[in-house]
From TrEMBL:
One of its GO terms (molecular function) is RNA binding. InterPro entries: ANTAR, CheY-like_superfamily, Sig_transdc_resp-reg_antiterm, WH-like_DNA-bd_sf. Transmembrane segments: none annotated. This is Response regulator. It comes from the Bacteria.
């Protein structure tokens, strides 16, 4: 499958709710300025920002409705709560997640990556940095998904092989046939029923477990 250009992605930003905080709140002012710079950088890069959402309990439902291709987390200094909402929202529908933060405490980077964050960027909101960061995030996510699919395929093949071996053993014992003959019995049954050999093997094992 050809790589997807990052600039064609539908992006959702998870960010603080306001860009106009109370002027007396210095920290909120910094966060708003960072968030503003991020949005400007995305727009200048031609990205399709389909929504800006707060990190609240409704986030999973909103993301399920929008179905974005990438999620950008514009995190305040304490990103833990934000990440928890995003992780819940993407647990069953994985997407590349890029987290931008000004928090230079990297002690929770490992947990963030383990939770599904694709790229974790500290103090990286200069507009000219955004495109390469998103390109890397997308490439990394696609690579990890390919590995994940390959691992799942390998696990399925291994499980299938175990089922077939066990089913062959049952047939060999019951009918006094050799291994090849047992396999041919399974293969013929699979062809006749339009099933995979592993599925026939599982059914045979289930029956054998019942009748003993």
């Amino acid at each position: 499958m050809a790589p997807t250009p990052a600039s064609s992605l539908r992006i959702v930003i998870v960010a603080p709710e306001t860009l106009n905080p109370d002027p007396s709140d210095v920290e909120a002012g910094w966060e708003a300025e960072r968030s503003r710079s991020l949005r400007i950088g995305l727009l200048q890069g031609g990205y399709d920002v389909v929504a800006v959402l707060p990190a609240d309990v409704f986030l999973p439902d909103r993301l399920a409705q929008i179905q974005p291709d990438m999620i950008i987390v514009d995190a305040e200094s304490q990103a833990r709560d934000t990440l928890e909402h995003v992780v819940v929202a993407t647990r069953d529908a994985r997407r590349p997640i890029v987290l931008f933060t000004d928090d230079d405490d990297t002690s929770h980077v490992k947990d963030a990556i383990a939770a599904g964050v694709t790229v974790y960027v500290v103090a990286g909101l200069a507009p000219e940095r955004i495109k390469p960061v998103l390109d890397v995030a997308l490439a990394r996510f696609q690579h990890e998904e390919a590995l994940r699919r390959e691992l799942a395929k390998t696990r399925t093949q291994l499980q299938d092989r175990k089922l077939v071996e066990r089913a062959k053993g049952i047939l060999m014992k019951r009918y006094g046939c050799d291994e090849q003959q047992a396999y041919e019995r399974l293969r013929k049954a699979a062809m006749d029923k339009g099933l995979r050999i592993a599925e026939v093997a599982q059914r045979l094992i289930d029956v054998a477990d019942v009748i003993g």
